[in-house]
Amino acid sequence: MVNRLVWQNVLHRPVRTLLSVVAVGVEITLILTVVGLSKGMLEESARRTRGVGAHILIRPSTAQAAMGMSSADLSEKLVGYFASLPEVDKVAGTTVQTQLTASLRTITGVDLESFSRMSGGLKYLSGGPFEQPFDAVVDEVYARQNKLRVGQPLELWNRTFRVTGIVEPGKLSRVFVPIATMQDLMGWKGKLSQIYLQLRRPAETDGVVADLQRRHPGLNIYSVEEFTSLISLNNLDSLKIFIRVVVGLAVVIGFLVVMLSMYTAILERTREIGILKSLGASQLYIVGIVIRETLLLALLGIGLGILLSFGVKAAIERTFPILVVSLDREWWGWAGLIAVGGALLGALYPAARAARQDPIAALAYE
Amino acid sequence: MIEIRDLVKTYRLGRVEVLALRGVSLSIQPGEFVALVGPSGSGKSTLLHVVGGLTPPTAGQVRIDGLDLAAMGDAARTRLRQRTIGFVFQKFNLLPTLTAAENIAMARHIAGHRNYDRAHFDQILGVLGIGDRLGHKPFALSGGEQQRVAIARALANQPKILLADEPTGNLDTENSQAVLEILKDLNRRLGQTTLMITHNPEAADWCAHRTVRMRDGRLVDP
């Protein structure tokens, strides 16, 4: 019976209901999109790292973050050293710079020959490899986002590069330039940012990593499997803080809208509360009605928010192809719980106010 | 039985303390139909609200079947309203979003379906003549029909006491007469104690066993 009353109340004021549901929906969409974008970008980065085909990744000890780097502190001579190890089959060194331009852009300097040997080679959708020092190869996603075609110029470090090839995405980077050019431009002569090793026997990866770590304590040496597992929300403190701030803001939005909505609903239904009290409804009964209505609004909002997040994902990925939004079902639950918590918090004061209504004053309310 | 002794009720209106009841004493026998008449502001509604447990007495005693309302807390008075009291208001006070049947069902639900007896309730519906109007919401019912639904709701849990606050105040003459006849008939058939406020002394004399007059917060002699 209470459910019937709650449902009828919700239908009775469709605009108020719609606004509340949309507010909770936006809260959910905000959470799912921010988390999905963070997760999607990280997963995409991990996927591209795995696409190199290496088993071991070596970074300088100064490299802190799993994501992004803009230094080259490894000696190029290490490539020859690692290539001489009997368990190592192929070696490729790269230089990397992450730039925050119109969007986050990572440019990778590669020696295409050694990189192709390890990764099986870039698959060209149009054009071909570098021919000149100021040539660049971009992946199809980057080309689509920046409307680039083979032969067109690409501005990097205030220099004009020429796009010679567009490749399938999924290997290492979205923008490739000749490693020697990048070393020259960045003042990294003879230096590398990371070195990838492919082993003769992949099953021995963990043992080789342990051995290399013991012999080279000054280097960060990971199996690619371990390194990609580090590229997650849990391991990036700044991203975690950012997500918490966004979630916090979303909760505040939901809390305020639900509180305002339920508060006006309680004011509007003062007389009805008086009627219920005259029938013998207890304070708990009245609180129950308010809470159930809040939960209904929150649940409708969660449903709408999940649907909206798919729309936002499609819009983001269509407008900015380099952005990847990964809508995680686990986060549907978390976002739902967060929204329900915020909504219930917002309903507490209106519910308490309704429960404490003096029945005589409420019945006299016009 | 309702036993009221030296009942005093004050309430605050802003910063002013209003003395609404100034020592009311009244006994009402089980099954008795008592009409309460008097000018506006005489304290009739306040007396009804105190007897109905909507507000506690300030001083004095109100005993219903031996239980003193002055000693009851809010929760106990809430239980009293669920099980022992039925209200009928001048403005009908139906929940606007629910149908007539749902309004009645809500009263049963709040009371926990304790005293509900289907056969008994069908008898009430028969007297009220609203069987074919139960699926409608209040806005689709006439004033007379709304008040009949309100009476059905008030009696859904077989309360021992029916409190009616000017039940014909918003009705035309024809519907007023019909509602008074219903209240009189139901009192005779079901035997619940009825205390009804009315401005109409003729109506009071016609349907009640006894008429009590109030002025300035006190009972006055006829």
Architecture blueprint of SSEs:
The complex is a heterodimer of chains A (366) and B (222).
Chain A: H1 2-12, H2 14-50, E1 56-60, E2 74-75, H3 77-84, E3 88-100, E4 104-110, H4 112-119, E5 124-127, E6 135-139, H5 140-145, E7 153-156, E8 159-167, E9 175-178, H6 179-186, E10 191-192, E11 194-199, H7 205-215, E12 219-223, H8 224-230, H9 237-268, H10 270-278, H11 283-319, H12 329-355, H13 359-363
Parallel strand pairs in A: 4-9, 6-8
Antiparallel strand pairs in A: 1-11, 1-12, 2-10, 3-4, 3-11, 5-8, 6-9, 7-8
Chain B: E1 2-13, E2 16-28, E3 33-37, H1 44-51, E4 59-64, E5 67-68, H2 74-83, E6 85-88, H3 100-110, H4 118-128, H5 143-155, E7 161-165, H6 173-190, E8 193-197, H7 201-207, E9 210-215, E10 218-220
Parallel strand pairs in B: 3-8, 3-9, 6-7, 7-8
Antiparallel strand pairs in B: 1-2, 1-4, 4-5, 9-10
Describe the structure in your own words.
The complex is a heterodimer of chains A (366) and B (222). Chain A is an alpha+beta fold and 366 residues long. Chain A has 13 helices and twelve strands. Chain A has two domains: 2-42 and 237-363, no CATH class; 62-217, no CATH class. In chain A, strand 7 (153-156) and strand 8 form a beta hairpin. Chain B has a six-stranded mixed β-sheet with strand order 6-7-8-3-9-10, with helices on both faces. The mean pLDDT of chain B is 89. Chain B is α/β, with parallel strands linked by helices and 222 residues long. Chain B is globular and about 45 Å long. Chain B has a single domain (30-56, 74-220), classed as P-loop containing nucleotide triphosphate hydrolases (Rossmann fold). Chain A binds chain B through residues 1-2, 4-5, 8-9, 11-12, 271-272, 274-283, 285, 358-360, 363, and chain B through 49, 52, 54-55, 74-75, 78-83, 85, 87, 89, 93-98, 102, 105-107, 109-111, 153.
